[in-house]
Design a protein that fits this description.
256 residues; alpha+beta; Ubiquitin-like (UB roll); Fumarate Reductase Iron-sulfur Protein, Chain B, domain 2; 2 domains; five-stranded mixed beta sheet; two-stranded antiparallel sheet; binds iron/sulfur cluster; binds FE2/S2 (inorganic) cluster
């Protein structure tokens, strides 16, 4: 292959009809995976010179905040919008980069998958703070220390991208485990002083079929989270709290 070019090898198609298709591009120092996909959109011609259909993918923020462009790049889950082509060529020594859709979510088409299960999990864990009047009290509202704010901030950066679930061996079609992101969000909402009002209900979700018992502690999730969320720390904390909640429920103690 000409050293001045690179190839995207894309696993595309619809459920049950997936195939690889290659596209060749001129190297450009600032190109990322999304800008390359946009070039295909403008001129959908594959490496064999055949006219083909444009590749489908999702994007939103283009700055690694929304999580919608997540896919497998050279087999690893990450966001396409911040994946620089030149970095891949430098790191792998190869001018061929493979793109594929996530495998733990239902395939829609090409690089698009349906991540609804991530959002449904947020509904199940009550991923919100109920209005209790303190939000209108300004400086007289519930104080949150700087330390707790800092701990909460990193948890709040979760963008439901699904990289953690994609890498987790325990998230599969045989398991009901809702994945590490939802468990970490239980920690986030339970840390908020107002969120604590629904702490027990969230922990009951963590003790259920889809909850923390599904985690096998493989720790893949924490290694791939693009936001550096301390997922394994959240998982062990929720594991301990869920056990306490189950004991409280067993002996009939009221919610705090
Ligand atoms: S925890 Fe990290 S990897 Fe998982 S969905 Fe949130 S941002 Fe993505
Ligand atoms: S620790 Fe392992 S098993 Fe548990 S959620 Fe993370 S990747 Fe999955
Ligand atoms: S487009 Fe939002 S994270 Fe990539």
């Amino acid at each position: 292959m000409d050293a001045g070019t690179y190839v995207l090898k894309i696993y595309r198609g619809t459920p049950g009809k997936q195939y690889w298709e290659q596209f060749e591009f001129k190297r450009n120092y600032s190109a990322n995976v999304i800008s390359a996909l946009m070039e295909i959109q403008k001129r959908p011609v594959n490496r064999k010179g055949e006219i083909t259909t444009p590749v489908a993918w999702e994007q939103g923020c283009l700055e690694e905040v929304c999580g919608s462009c997540s896919m497998l790049i050279n087999g690893k889950p990450r966001q396409a919008c911040t994946a620089l082509i030149e970095e891949y060529i430098r790191d792998t020594g190869s001018n061929v980069i493979a793109l594929a859709p996530f495998t733990k979510f239902p395939l829609i088409r090409d690089l698009c998958v349906n991540r609804d299960s991530m959002f449904q999990a947020l509904v199940k864990i009550r991923g919100w703070i109920s209005v209790d009047g303190t939000e209108d009290q300004g400086e007289f509202g519930q104080p949150i220390s700087q330390e707790v704010q800092q701990a909460m901030y990193v948890l709040s950066t979760c963008m439901t991208c699904g990289c953690c679930s994609e890498s987790c061996p325990q998230v599969n079609h045989r398991s009901e485990f809702m994945g590490p992101a939802a468990m970490s969000q239980i920690r986030y909402f339970n840390t908020n002083p107002t969120g604590k009002l629904e702490k027990s209900e969230r922990l009951r979700v963590a003790t259920g079929q889809e909850g923390i018992a599904g985690c096998g502690n493989a720790q893949n999730c924490v290694r791939v989270c693009p936001k550096g969320i301390p997922l394994t720390e959240s998982l062990s904390l929720i594991g301990r709290e869920a056990t306490k909640q189950a004991l409280k429920d067993l002996i009939g103690l009221p919610d705090a």
